[in-house]
């Protein structure tokens, strides 16, 4: 199975990739085809024995494929000398594998040195990278064992990025660090990727990591069989079979909400009227929305809401007392956050404001329900 | 042969007047002792390094290589000298053959161990960065094996310093000769000077080598902070 990508040629194209290790009958990877779009992150995820790491290592030929082709940037890489190919592909591994006999500076400079860059270019690149990955320059003169696990992993990423390769391969990069550091490193990778737009292939056994980091997730089954390739939200919404559904685990709907933002919804104006409007207008708005409360806007700002009983005996809204909406969100908030706010509010809606506090619309629980399935 | 003359004390363990009268001879014996030690360990390394490198890659060669050098190690030095004299005479070559062969087991084993101790992830990262196999060997594995190799060189050196004394029996004029002649003639000062100098050479050589290692492997001097 291969996924169709826009007109753009994929950065990495695997076709019929197969690996049979000597002495084992069953193939570790069997006829795997996969396109990785340029500038995106593809996470290979699956249980142990699914061939995800084998697949990754075939891309830079640390493992030679038994059959099939690998194209990186349209070139068949099986014809290149392996060491030259690897200098053009960033590589990050789980145990990090920093060279213990070299300073952090020398570790980061590894590939530029192999490529024969001149000293001043290497030095300025190293200085730049240390900051890109969020480390202090004071670590440069130190040796790897003097750094914490998280710092070492950052150095590992800096080393992989040193020669600015278009493609980055990451083999379970965060499974050796504790969960708190892992979360931070994952956030950093997302931020980094937002600026660098590398083509990343990342191997993980953790579906939550895959969903968090991947633009696309490729779920593999034992023997290197591709079960599904999809965007994380689509994967959660529609697993193609029992295996994928089981691998995704419980709470799929809720977890999907964490991937969608308010901006992706079509916001409704809701039962909202201007302060200058009359009571009939407010009643009409409530009838349309099917609510027994209405909101009041002044100068594009939603000042609050009032129950229908607040209209009793009043012809205009000028005197109506309002209560503040307790649930407010912004466009970049996730639907999961929004849902959480809604369930603890009085009106069962979350109001959406722009950065300047102007009213944009409201999100109802029904909208979120539809969003979790669409 | 240094003659102990009656004017020196036979009861004292160390008669300084004998030492000051014979400084030239003592110096020459010390120098010869050092030359033989350095040659033996140096030649031992020249033989061991290529053999160990080959055996590090081909696991099947390890057992036979270690058995042969282990066998050499067990041959008594005196016996080996006796066997060699008819062929190579009372020469420095005759002295060097057993000395060199005793270093091989220790050196080869330590070099292989040093190369083996390089973590798999470091090798994999090096390959993944685009190092060739050769470059991994020379720029990653061998530097990381230096502490283990130097540890082997230290043991081999200290052992050789002691063994060199035995070669005085085939006429090699080193510190062993002072001991033998002092012992045979019951002249304690001569015996004592030989023993003391051998011990001093061994200790100093060990310290110098360990200092060299610390200098050459700065990464082993740092303590982990995490």
Question: What does this entry look like structurally?
Answer:
The complex is a heterodimer of chains A (374) and B (226). By secondary structure, chain A is an alpha/beta fold. Helix content of chain A is 33%, strand content 23%. Chain A is built from 14 helices and 16 strands. Chain A has helices spanning 52-59, 82-87, 104-108, 110-114, 119-132, 149-161, 179-196, 207-213, 232-237, 242-248, 252-257, 279-289, 335-343, 365-373, and strands at residues 12-19, 29-36, 41-45, 67-72, 75-76, 89-93, 167-171, 199-204, 216-221, 225-230, 272-274, 293-298, 301-307, 328-329, 349-353, 359-364. In chain A, the strands form four sheets. Chain A has a six-stranded mixed sheet, sandwiched between helices. In chain A, helix 5 crosses helix 6 (149-161). Chain A is elongated. In chain B, helix 5 crosses helix 7 (133-164) and helix 7 runs antiparallel to helix 9. Helix content of chain B is 76%, strand content 0%. Chain B is elongated. The longest helix of chain B has 35 residues, at 23-57. Chain B is mainly alpha-helical and 226 residues long. Classes of the chains: A alpha/beta (374), B mainly alpha (226). Chain A binds chain B through residues 60, 62, 83-88, 91, 93-102, 110-111, 114, 142-143, 145-149, 156, 159, 169, and chain B through 119, 121-132, 140, 143-144, 217-219, 222-226.
Kindly list the characteristics that best describe this protein:
heterodimer; A: 374 residues; alpha/beta; 4-stranded antiparallel beta sheet; 16 strands; disordered N terminus; B: 226 residues; mainly alpha; 76% helix
**Count of individual helical segments of chain A:** 14
Read across the widest sheet of chain A, the strand sequence of neighbours is 6-7-8-3-9-10
Radius of gyration of chain B: 22 Å
The number of helical segments of chain B is 9
Order of helices and strands of chain B: HHHHHHHHH
Strand proportion of chain B: under 5%
H/E element string of chain A? EEEHEEHEHHHHEHEHEEHHHEHEEEHEEH
